[in-house]
Amino acid sequence: MGGTHIDAAKNLTAELPIEAIPAPEKVVLPLSMHIGAPAKPLVQPGEKVYLGQKIAEAQGAVSSNIHASVSGMVVGSERRFLPNGTVAACMVIKNDGQDTLDPTITPRESGLVLPPDEIRQLLAEKGIVGMGGATFPTHVKYAPQSSGRIIDTVILNGIECEPFITADYRILIEHADEVIRGLKYFLKASLANKGIIAIEDNKPRAIELFNQLTADDPNISVVVCPEKYPQGSERHLIYAVTGRVVPERALPSAVGVIVDNVATAMQAALAVKDDLPCYERIVTVSGNAVHKPGNYRVRIGTLYSHLVEQGAQGLKNAPARIISGGPMMGFSLHSLDFPVLKGTGGLLLFDHQSELAKLPPENPCVRCGKCVDTCPMFLEPTQLFKAVKRRDWPTALAGHVGTCIECGSCAYNCPANIPLVQYIRMGKQFILTDGFGGHNPYYKK
What we know:
The chain is an alpha/beta fold and about 450 residues long.
């Protein structure tokens, strides 16, 4: 029960190899592109920086370091909107075109000889966060459990169930060795003895490849999951591959599991063995409004406009809709003047002829129950939507609004075209920030 079958629409880019695009003339690096406290700047305008140099330091228990994605000069700081609608302080670096690597970066022959605490320290120092979109600082996940709970399983999420996005799939195909190496680092950092690579059954090539590469490793296995959205959701993936149920408001560690994205594993492999910080990532650009859909290796802080021009060879038609991320959980944008973040997996552009660019009018709820049937969290989206509209926060809280994972299944299946997930997301944000007087279990003080 719950979830929905949707058109994956990955044929435009699934078989296109990753291409590196030239670094831009400038990068815009937000100090808050992760869950937790913003990083504190370590450099000032007018200072020269190396590629990979730490330019902002994590603050507090949950935060992440930021590194320069080009060599050059810091030319300013500014506040700007990010794709999710939040505003963040950003550092702007003018590229000198030299890509002069930070001289303190020193690759090592093997990362597996390092003790667990050193692996965790490297994950922290190199700014590794969840690159599947959540952007939770990775080193925090692997910190020893204060509760004394034992982590016995690490799951790599290779599901990538969002339509159009194929960045993770290309990582599985082209960087399989790094993915497995990253998983081994995660196993050592967490002291877990079981690693699982979860892949959806619509990726037979990746399944065959990883079955071959892990055949001789008794601690790592490949689990094939049925294609159904949102199979890649952390809680549902844990249940699908282990049968364990994560309690409401609890983390996966409560059931002895840590989940990380395959892109995060690849980045961890580069951090631990090659000593490289997180300064680039793979992004899928797709949609019928660009000349060349594809999967591109791009520097963090690159503006979307540069990514489209240099990677997708510009616009074929004027975009009627721009989406950062995927069509189910992504964010609609009004322009391409936004930077690529650590959690950016896709950029979609559709012209006026595309069905995805059309926004049909919202109609009254017909009480069909489709949103309830497809909600993977067993909520009643229509009731939550009505509660949010009338700002009835006690009813929203009683309906467990905080457990919504914002997958968009309800809105996708609504025949009345009600943007259910958008209403619920707004309600959650109000409760989280204003706290409804602080008297609710989801309030962040």
